[in-house]
Amino acid sequence: MTSRRVVATGTFDILHPGHLYYLSESRKLGDELFVIVARDANVKHKPHPIVPEEQRRAMIAALKPVDHAILGDQTDMFRPIEEIRPDIITIGFNQYFDEEHLKSQLAARGLRAEVVRIGRYADGDLASSRRIVQRIIDARGGGDQRG
After folding, report:
1. Quick one: which of 48, 18, 14, 25 has its CA closest to 124?
2. Can you point out the beta strands (E) in the chain?
3. CA 52 to chain centre
4. pTM (whole model) above 0.70
5. Can you give the residue range of the structural domain that contains 88?
6. Going by C-beta distance under 8 Å and a sequence separation of 6 or more, which residues neighbour residue 140?
């Protein structure tokens, strides 16, 4: 009997409850959860990550729902998917992927994974790296305030 493989992807810059919800819900869909962490150089759709890619990967690998955490490919986002051959690929509620376009890109490469969008974390005020950074700036100001 083969296990059902699930792939989740993301930048995971500053870990927060929304990330844990996304990964926990993704893990429930299969037997094995692979997480592909975006490479620093590939993050172009939002501000550059604060936390370096290897540290982000290590943090994701340490989370209970995660079985495998790897860095994405620098030039071809589908290369790790081809290696893992998942049954399901999950995307977060705010990830910019168009599900139908993603499905057609996968099919063009002979990948038949189901694409599932995971919903929003319900208690989400601080379930956004951007909001966490903004809250820190608002609370502490722009200067160096140690304490």
Report:
1. 18
2. 5-10, 32-37, 68-71, 88-91, 114-117
3. 15
4. yes
5. 5-140
6. none
Domain tally, the chain: 1
Q: Which amino acid is at 39?
A: R
Three-state SS at 35? strand
122-133 in b/e form (b: 16+ CB < 10 A) is eeeeebbbeebe
The dihedral through the CA atoms of 101, 103, 106, 107 has a sign that is negative
CATH number at residue 101: 3.40.50.620
pLDDT, tens digit (0-9, with 9 covering 90-100), for 70-111:
999 999 999 999 999 999 999 998 888 888 899 999 999 999
- Bridge-based pairing state of the strands 5-10 and 68-71: unpaired
Does 80 fall in a domain? yes
Residue 145 belongs to some domain of the structure: no
In a domain, residue 109? The reply is: yes
The pair of three-digit structure tokens given for residue 13, joined into one six-digit string: 């810059």
